[in-house]
Amino acid sequence: EDKICDFNDHLCIDGGGGECAATPGGTGTHVGDLIGTFALNDCLGNKHVLHDSCGVAKAVWFIQVAGWCGACEQYGPQAWEYAQGFFGQGLEIYFVLGEDAGGAPPSQAYCMQYAEGHGFDPVNVLIDPSWQTFGSFITIGGNTLPWDVLLDGDDMMFVWESVDPNFAVLQSELNKLLGD
User: Cis peptide leading into 146, omega within 30 of 0?
Assistant: First the structure.
C-alpha cells in the first residue's frame, strides 16, 4: 500500500491528505496557476502525491537540484537549515533530484547518498529523472540550477519561482502563506 508523507511531522502514513481546491489536472503550469497533482518517490521509496498535501501544508517549497550542480551543493544545505525554522508552521520542503553527479538519472541508492551527504532527511529528497514529471506540471523560467518553486498549500497555486536564491524575498512569500 502507498505511503503518504507529511513533512510537517516527518512521518509517512497510510492514506491521508487534505482537501484541495485545485482539480487533479490543475489550471496550468505557470506562476498564478493551480498546479495539477503528480507523484514522485523519495529516497526511501515512499510515494509523495502533491495534492495529498493540500490543506495540510500551508506552503510547499520545491528546489530542483542535481548531483553535478556546484551551486546546489552550497544552496541546498543553506535552504535546508533555513526551512528548519518553518516546519512547525506548515512548510514542506522537497529537493527534486533530477540527475546524479554524472548527469544520469538518479537511482534510489544515489538519492540516499545525496541526502545523507547533504544532511537532508531522505524523505525530503524526491527522485525525478531529468525532471520529466516535475517539468510536465510546473513550467520554470530557465534552465539554471538550483531552481526554487513555492506553492500555496491550500490550493497548490504556483506563487513564486527563482533561480537566484534570495532568502529575503523567499521570507516575504513565506510570510504571506504561513500567516506570519
Answer: yes
Q: What is the pLDDT of residue 174?
A: 92
User: What Å distances lie between residue 75 and 30, 38, 84, 88, 99, CA to CA?
Assistant: 24, 25, 14, 22, 17
CB within 8 Å of 38: residues ≥ 6 apart: 49, 50, 133, 134, 136, 137
Would you say the C-alpha torsion 65, 42, 150, 50 has a positive or negative sign? positive
**CA angle 12-14-15, nearest 5°?**
115
Nearest to 64 by CA among 1, 173, 132, 149: 149
Determine contact, residues 88/107, Cβ cutoff 8 Å. no
Residues 6+ positions from 109 with CB-CB distance below 8 Å: none
For 100-137, the pLDDT digits (tens) are 999 999 999 999 999 999 999 999 999 999 999 998 89
CA dist 94 to 1, 27, 79, Å? 22, 22, 10
Q: Which of 15, 92, 77, 11 is nearest to 44 (CA)?
A: 11
